[in-house]
Design brief:
Keywords: Signal. It holds the Pfam family Neprosin_AP. There is one protein chain. This protein is an alpha+beta fold. It folds into two domains: about 30 residues; about 350 residues, no CATH class. The protein contains four helices and 18 strands. The strands form three sheets. Strands 5, 9, 10, 11, 12, 14, 15, 17 and 18 form a nine-stranded antiparallel beta sheet that branches. The chain has a six-stranded antiparallel beta sheet with strand order 8-7-6-13-4-16, with no helix packed on it. Strands 1-2-3 form a three-stranded antiparallel beta sheet, with no helix packed on it. The N and C termini lie far apart (about 75 Å).
């Protein structure tokens, strides 16, 4: 019998239509089941993520003896100094913070005014932590939920220093010295509140102490101020530190978000907002930072202002920096994600170009390095470089009052920087 003729019979035709009807009725059921399974999977995924976050928060946030509520919304926990995150490190377990080291011999320069340690919003009402404790900005669940990667929370995403700046959207305007052995660096950095237009971009101004080949063995120690909506949830400039011993891959972090930096000061909270800030054609405010290698124990210490010790990076965290640095950089860095297809409007420094000068452009002044004999000395070979001078630029100089200095920064996207 011819099969094609058979399909035309009423019974076969009815059966075909019936099967098509059953299939059409089953589709919404299958689709609904698929949606339920997908929702269940998403719920389990979110539950897993929250569990990971809460476990991480327990590691970061230590038991405290006192909490200070900052006017900007931060919670500052006063933690016993020997319970701080640094001592979670296997090589630091059971230790306590070291005594202050011998400080570098100072090269005389006009400091143009010095500021007290009362430079952070949380201390403006006179609050501080008791002796024997250190202030730590509390990390909250919402901080980690904002992060582009929970696994890498607290680390620079695709961090870079100037030599690698042509990739991953990191742009710089820096002064730098190289070609010698360096045992520290010092500068006064004007503080601004630049606009950051994307949650996952940042704008910072800092000192880099660098050693290694600029490959995967890169060691850096960093300190300065930054605006990072992803990390802090706001647009305040904040005092920060950073370190890495493998080019930002698996080691190091911001502030006290991992074991590493050992804090010794009970009045300065790393990661807390800075106040006041500079204003365009108005008052100018800067912070002085010194990083140097203790000649006796080899640890790298951080000093704020005219002599306030913040803490130190233990020498054992590093490979190349156990000996000395091979380069020092000073300046600004932003991340340009080009999320709208054009250059970002995120500002560097004051958001104004270097040529506008004092009161308008951001600056670094009194740049110095520490030599092999623990002396602070002026720079003899400072070079300046801007990756994208139409977006952010830099102009250096030297005079009797400011020593080595430069103005730097810019607005980002403009008619010359599309």
């Amino acid at each position: 019998m011819d099969f094609t003729l058979c399909l035309t019979s009423p019974i076969i035709s009815f059966l075909v239509h019936f099967l098509l009807l059953v299939a059409s009725l089953a589709c919404p059921v299958l689709s609904s089941q698929s949606q339920i399974l997908n929702q269940t999977f998403q719920t389990q995924k979110e539950f897993l993520k929250l569990n990971i976050i809460r476990t991480r928060l327990q590691q970061i946030n230590k038991p405290y003896v006192k909490t200070v509520q900052s006017p900007d919304g931060d919670l500052i926990d006063c933690v016993l100094s020997h319970h701080q995150p640094a001592f979670d490190h296997p090589l630091l377990k059971g230790q306590k913070p070291l005594d202050p080291p011998e400080r570098p011999k100072t090269y005389h320069q006009n400091q143009m005014g010095s500021f007290s340690e009362n430079f952070q919003t949380w201390t403006l009402s006179g609050e501080s932590c008791p002796e024997g404790t250190i202030p730590i900005r509390r990390t909250r669940e919402e901080d980690m939920l904002r992060a582009s990667s929970v696994r890498r929370f607290g680390r620079k995403i695709r961090g870079r220093v100037r030599r690698d700046s042509n990739s991953n959207g990191h742009e710089h305007a820096v002064g730098f010295v190289s070609g010698d052995k360096y045992y520290g660096a010092k500068a006064s950095i004007s503080v601004w509140a630049p606009r950051v237009t994307n949650q996952y971009e940042f704008s910072l101004s800092q000192i880099w102490v660098i050693s290694g080949s600029f490959g995967q063995d890169l060691n850096t120690i960093e300190a300065g101020w930054q605006v990072s909506p992803e990390l802090y949830g706001d647009s305040y400039p904040r005092f920060f530190t950073y370190w890495t011993s493998d080019a930002y891959q698996t080691t190091g972090c911001y502030n006290l978000l991992c074991s590493g930096f050992v804090q010794t000061n009970n009045k300065i909270a790393i990661g807390a907002a800075i106040s006041p800030t500079s204003s365009y054609r108005g008052g100018q405010f800067d912070i002085s930072l010194l990083i140097w290698k203790d000649p006796k124990h080899g640890n790298w210490w951080l000093q704020f202002g005219s002599g306030i010790l913040v803490g130190y990076w233990p020498s054992m965290l590093f490979t190349h920096l156990r000996q000395h640095a091979s380069m020092v950089q000073f300046g600004g860095e932003i991340v340009n994600l080009r999320s709208s297809g054009t250059h970002t409007l995120t500002q560097m420094g004051s958001g104004h170009f270097a040529e506008e000068g004092f009161g308008r452009a951001s600056y670094f002044r009194n740049l110095q390095v520490v030599d092999w004999d623990n002396n602070l000395i002026p720079l003899s070979n400072l070079r300046v470089l801007a990756d994208h001078p139409n977006c952010y630029d830099i102009q250096g100089g030297i005079n009797r009052v400011w020593g080595n200095y430069f103005y730097y920064g810019g607005p980002g996207r403009n008619v010359r920087c599309p």
